[in-house]
Amino acid sequence: MKEYTNSGNKDTRSGFGAGLTELGKKNENVVALCADLTGSLKMNDFAANHPERFFQVGIAEANMMGIAAGLTIGGKIPFTGTFANFSTGRVYDQIRQSIAYSDKNVKICASHSGLTLGEDGATHQILEDIGLMKMLPGMTVINTCDYNQTKNATLAIADYEGPVYLRFGRPKVANFTPENDDFQIGKGVQLQEGNDVTIVATGHLVWEALEAAKQLHEAGISANVINIHTIKPLDEEIIIKSVQKTGCIVTAEEHNYLGGLGESVARTLAQHLPTPQEFVATQDTFGESGTPEQLLEKYGLNAENIVKMSKQVITRK
Amino acid sequence: MADIQQLKDMVTQVRRDIVRQVHAVNSGHPGGSLGCAEFLVTLYCEFMDHDPSFNMDGKNEDLFFLSNGHISPVIYSVLARNGYFPVEELATFRKLDSRLQGHPTTHEGLPGIRIASGSLGQGMSVAIGAALAKKLNDDDKTIFSLHGDGELQEGQIWESVMYAAANNVDNLICTIDVNGQQIDGSTDQVLDLGNLQAKFEAFGWNVLRIKDGNNVEAIIEGMREAISLSRKRKPICILLHTEMGNGVDFMMGSHKWHGVAPNDEQLEEALAQNPETLGDY
Question: Which residues form the Transketolase-like pyrimidine-binding domain (chain A) (predicted)?
Fold first, then answer.
């Protein structure tokens, strides 16, 4: 069984900040907009190095989305930054009309997604954003798993023409994917070969999936682990190929089980290869205040629950 | 530069285009479209440096953004009459597979349209973004936009108004179509807009007023003044006072014709009041 090394916990939002800093130097069409959360989004370096290409819009997210759409007319590549809740739900109509329907090359970059925003509670946590964004025609939806992947994704989406939603988070999580990896939008990453159960995960739950695979291995169960960093377009081929071998699947994400990765996978399998599936995700509930660790445990977004669901889904084959 | 009579002839033909488009599908918004005919004809024919061969980026061109997208019949007519697409295409307005959607969109690839609009309140933000891109590109052309007065009830407008002033977006000329009407009644009755001049000025804008927004000469004079005020570290707002339904007597002065199509007899009556000048499609 392949071992993955955690090179040290780092926050994914800092991966975004590092990517944006690099883009600032190498792509002069890249511009950045922020709604009063420059520090939270780690956009400080870009703002300091390229003040003429950084737009502080204040606490006015709807205006930010519209300005971003307008900047594309003139060839700019705008990256907007705020919390995931205010990047999606608060400005859904602006994104829908001025960005997605208008085919504008805006990169909507969203930090503090999911429960792990922590103590701020449900008003600031969002567990519906993947669903909201994936329902928009033409929108690419990416949820990266660690610091390195977030940085590589940030660089990759600048070269991709079209609207993108890039989702990442606040807490420090294991950093284990290769530095300077070639991030391919829409391609899942095979992390672990196995025959008994497929585990597909997104975001920092990919690391939990690897931890779960280790525990399953000790129990004599071999898991096939896939990192789905792009939820839309979904790499259907890698998923179907895996379940042809394993016959069952567990999906894991820090999102509501309605509308997230799990639902996209379920639709794919229903159409091509109906397969028993279990969902590691929140169960149609709002979040609450707590430390990230407490919340992940309470809502079952961890390796232990992935192990439990894997054992459960195997009995349904 | 076109002479005044040419502009007026264009306005008359645009009015014919508007009522014919809306009548043909028995849907659409003739009232506000007719009210803005003089303004858009004058803007496109007299003031904007624009290229009908059209590319989306519009570098080194003046750009126009329509924020109140429901008055699509007037912008479609003005674009077609300025060579952006064949005038005959106006016959496809709101029909299946048409590039002339009920509300304008880039999605169908209609030359001249750079942003979708229809859901109100978003166009000023987009216009600001385009104006900022021009500054970054050292492009000294101007961004124009048009907004309904009822549209100012949307909160996003005031986010934009605040931003443009705070950031000296002075290559932007936003025009508000002050016709005092919205779907449910007069703007005074539905949600009183108060003193718009004082509001925009309080936010830090240069504001000017065109009292007769259905008079070509008055529009030319107002636009010259607006352009002379640009590049002075302030965004510019034109309060353009128009009559909804202008040029068709039975449509004038009432919110009833905001979104209602004329029947066959009413169409004939409207066309009789606006004799053909440049040829119907």
Answer: 10-175
Phi, psi dihedrals of residue B157, rounded to the nearest 5° = -55, -45
Q: How far apart are the first and last CA of chain A?
A: 24
What pLDDT band is residue B253 in, cutting at 50, 70 and 90? confident
CATH number at residue B83: 3.40.50.970
Buried b (16+ CB within 10 A) or exposed e, B107-120: beebbbbbbbbbbb
Inter-chain contact A67–B137, Cβ cutoff 8 Å? no
The answer to whether position B214 is within a domain reads yes
Q: Which of A36, A50, A59, A102 should one mutate to test binding to chain B, selecting the residue with the greatest count of B CBs within 10 A?
A: A102
Share above pLDDT 70 across residues of chain B, in percent, rounded to a whole number:
99
Q: Which domain holds residue A96?
A: 10-173
Is the separation of the CB atoms in A149 and A175 below 8 Å?
A: no
In terms of domains, do A197 and A105 share one?
Answer: no
ipTM of the complex, rounded to two decimals: 0.96
Chain B residues with beta carbon closer than 8 angstroms to that of A35: none
Q: Report the domain count for chain B.
A: 1
Please tell me which of the candidates B56, B122, B131 has its beta carbon nearest to residue A98: B122
Chain A residues within 8 A of B132 when measuring between CB atoms = 55, 67, 70-71
- State yes or no: is A61 an active-site residue: yes
Query: Do the chains contact at B116 and A67, CB–CB below 8 Å?
Result: no
Q: What is the pLDDT of residues A254-307, one digit of tens each?
A: 999 999 999 999 999 999 999 999 999 999 999 999 999 999 999 999 999 999
A69 contact B CB<8A: yes
Domain-ending residue, one of A131, A147, A173? A173
CATH assignment at residue A269: 3.40.50.920
